[in-house]
Amino acid sequence: MNVATPITLKNSTGHTVCPHDCPSACALDVDLTDDGRIGRVRGANANSYTAGVICAKVARYAERLYHPDRLMTPKRRIGAKGDGSWQEISWDAALDEIAEAFVKAEAQHGSEAIWPYFYAGTMGQVQRDSIERLRHAKRYSGFFGSICTNMAWTGYVLGTGALRGPDPREMAKSDCVVIWGTNPVATQVNVMTHAVKARKERGAKIVVIDIYDSPTMKQADVKIILKPGTDAALACAVMHIAFRDGYADRDYMAKFADDPAGLEAHLQAKTPEWASAITGLSVEEIEAFARLVGTTKKTFFRLGYGFTRQRNGTVSMHAALSIATVLGSWQYEGGGAFHNNGELFRLDKRELMGTAYVDPDIRMLDQSQIGRVLTGDPVALRHRGPVTALLIQNTNPMNIAPEQRLVRQGFLRNDLFVAVHEHFMTDTAQVADIVLPATMFVEHDDLYRAGGQNHILLGPKLVEPPATVRTNLFVIEELAKRLGVDHYAGFGLSEREHIDRMLLPNGYPGYDQLLVDKWIDCQPGFEESHYLNGFGYPDGKFRFKPDWANGPSPNKTPASIGPLGPHAELPTFPDQVNVIELTDDEHPFRLATSPARNFLNSTFAETKTSRDKEGRPEVMVHPDDAASHDLEDGSIVRIGNRRGDLRIHVKIVATARRGVLIAEGLWPNGAHMDGEGINVLTGADPVAPYGGAAVHDNRVWLKKETA
């Protein structure tokens, strides 16, 4: 039975952290009952960023923890891949079979035939990243984690030289909060907490820039709904107006920017009329937005991930970021541009990840291109041998990865061994050879850091897990023993020991003190946060002219791979670059696969409340497009492109632009009419210059289904 047993806390409140793939890493207060179960989950009022507010899906986490379909025992496949035939086996037998399969794969094709594959299903440092220690010790294929952050991080850092920014709590002190390319009402509710506080206490304006009238847009004072992939054009026009009308802070740029004169000359032609033709916005909308931010010194640009998930997404991030430098917004409390604070958290992860064992000659395989890797694409394989064994933790590539038909084809190879460590029988688990049941976050110790805010947070174990499930760390340790590397440094340590070794060398308190303190505020002082001591480059200058092929990035491609995508086409200065999938006569629509409010990637799609609230897979269609295709609410359409096609129900909404289709949420493949999810339509060709998946950048056709 899925019943936890008590540890030491009863009828009390435990303190932990939301583990999921979200910039917030919310601090949580969890009710603990006398039978060792969790009850209500709340945001921690004492944490100044979480401020007592969390999303509804995490608030009802007990529904997920005690779900009747949670995996409870190891399983071995006994039928054909994907047909659902399993037998329960012991943990020892399961781990023995995985180790034997890895040894066999290495004997046949070398160590690179094994690919440990993971991502951010938990953001806990120990449970997420210990798999890297096994990878490096065994010289298995490297993992280039590109799918989510690369375009956004790269575009930001190529401007600032560092992945940090103003204290995100300063949104509450702003006179104008620009929420650009993110839907925080659905995906990061704390952004709205601080933005709305600014509106209530200061009369601040909230501007939302997106491609459809999202739930966040409904909270906006100013709505800017532009065509997908045209954010850089809007940014350029805003900067053009700033120079034209005297909003540009020339003194600030003279001190802190590399080539303001060159930028001004470049922007001469980037008029509101030029941008209007590209973005679909009116000249009046562009002028009004530029005037608002140009006359409001305390403007806080909160730049999200969503608008960067286009093939020109890195350029778009850099262009939007550049507005704050042209205006000099960085100089003011409540001003500047923020995306992520990842650089602040100085954790010593050398032992955790086994970096001493890294062999630079081992190939790096792109997470986003798993379909191409598993179907033998020589470029994706770096012109080396096949991958014949996978260990998967914390991710669900059979649902979330692009080019799903290739992904499925690869996973169904008879010569591919797959072990999946999971909470539920996900789409990926369904095609595995061995499935292992995993603990959830309140059932183990871990340490978290919050890219969207400023804290390192402790997530201690609050309840005992069911007796038959195991942590990610346990699996890595046991495989290390069976594979003969458990004597390497970093193995044999508990979660708490790993946490201490990450924290103590850099002067942070260890596990025991964090158990009392709960979190560490890592936000530096105002001048450092706002780059008033200089930006992150040696000369202290913001880069209007980034070095696209050689500049810094937190997740830069290794030298053996080099720049990716059409990097030679990227512009010298901020500009609209149409490397996106533009519509054509055959594909008259642009499709974005936006997040749903009640799912988080593919997580929570297994819980009844989340599924009931989302309803069913649907595609949003503008009323005029619906009329031209003789569609009604609930009509069935087939949408497709060169990568595939699928049937889906129509939801007619005036919130999308004409020619733009929105499919919210990553539903399990089986929830779709033909058993294939929306990522059948998304591509895996890498975004310039350092990779990433352009999952919102798809041109498609649409046809009404008559039956």
From TrEMBL:
InterPro entries: Asp_de-COase-like_dom_sf (IPR009010), MoPterin_dinucl-bd_dom (IPR006657), Mopterin_OxRdtase (IPR006656), Mopterin_OxRdtase_4Fe-4S_dom (IPR006963), Prok_Mopterin_Oxidored (IPR050612), YoaE_C (IPR037920). CDD domains: MopB_3 (cd02766), MopB_CT_3 (cd02786). Residues 11-69 form the 4Fe-4S Mo/W bis-MGD-type domain. One of its GO terms (molecular function) is metal ion binding. It comes from the Bacteria. Gene3D superfamilies: 2.40.40.20, 3.40.50.740, ADC-like domains, Dimethylsulfoxide Reductase, domain 2, Formate dehydrogenase/DMSO reductase. SUPFAM superfamilies: ADC-like, Formate dehydrogenase/DMSO reductase, domains 1-3. Signal peptide: none annotated. Keywords: Iron, Iron-sulfur, Metal-binding. Belongs to the prokaryotic molybdopterin-containing oxidoreductase family. PANTHER family: OXIDOREDUCTASE YYAE-RELATED, TRIMETHYLAMINE-N-OXIDE REDUCTASE. This is Anaerobic selenocysteine-containing dehydrogenase.
